[in-house]
Amino acid sequence: MASSVPPSGVVKGKCPVCSAPTVAAYRPFCSRRCADVDLSRWLRGAYAIPDRVESEDGDEADPAQAKPGDEPR
């Protein structure tokens, strides 16, 4: 039975960090370096999706949690 991975260890696809061809040992990356770069981005929060826009002091009220009859000050 033939393996779907070429003998050079290159797998179809591109590294999400540098766009080089993917290597089976580090899939989906091309090298240990690119895998570490991606991990560093995750740990720093670079891939975080912002929840909502807040001011710098963070004291704005959430309109969804306002009670009926409450008036803004």
The top-level CATH class of one domain is Alpha Beta
Assign the CATH superfamily of one domain: Erythroid Transcription Factor GATA-1, subunit A
Low-confidence stretches: none
Biggest sheet details: 2 strands, antiparallel
Please, how many helices? 1
How far the N terminus sits from the C terminus, by CA atoms, comes to 74 Å
Q: What CATH architecture of one domain would you give?
A: 2-Layer Sandwich
What class do helices, strands and sheet pairing give?
A: alpha+beta
The largest sheet has its strands arranged as: 1-2
What would the principal axes of the Cα set say about the shape? elongated
Strand content: 5-15%
Number of strands: 2
Layout of SSEs?
Blueprint: E1 10-14, E2 21-23, H1 32-44
Antiparallel strand pairs: 1-2
Task: Report what the structure shows.
This protein has 73 residues and is of the alpha+beta class. The chain has a domain at 7-46: Erythroid Transcription Factor GATA-1, Chain A. Helices cover 18% and strands 11% of the residues. It has one helix and two strands. The protein has one helix at residues 32-44; strands at 10-14, 21-23. The chain has a two-stranded antiparallel sheet with strand order 1-2. A hairpin with a 6-residue loop joins strand 1 (10-14) and strand 2 (21-23). It is elongated and about 70 Å long. The termini are far apart.
Give a nutshell description of this structure.
By secondary structure, the protein is of the alpha+beta class. Helix content is 18%, strand content 11%.
Please give a handful of descriptors for the protein shown:
18% helix, alpha+beta, Erythroid Transcription Factor GATA-1, Chain A, two-stranded antiparallel sheet
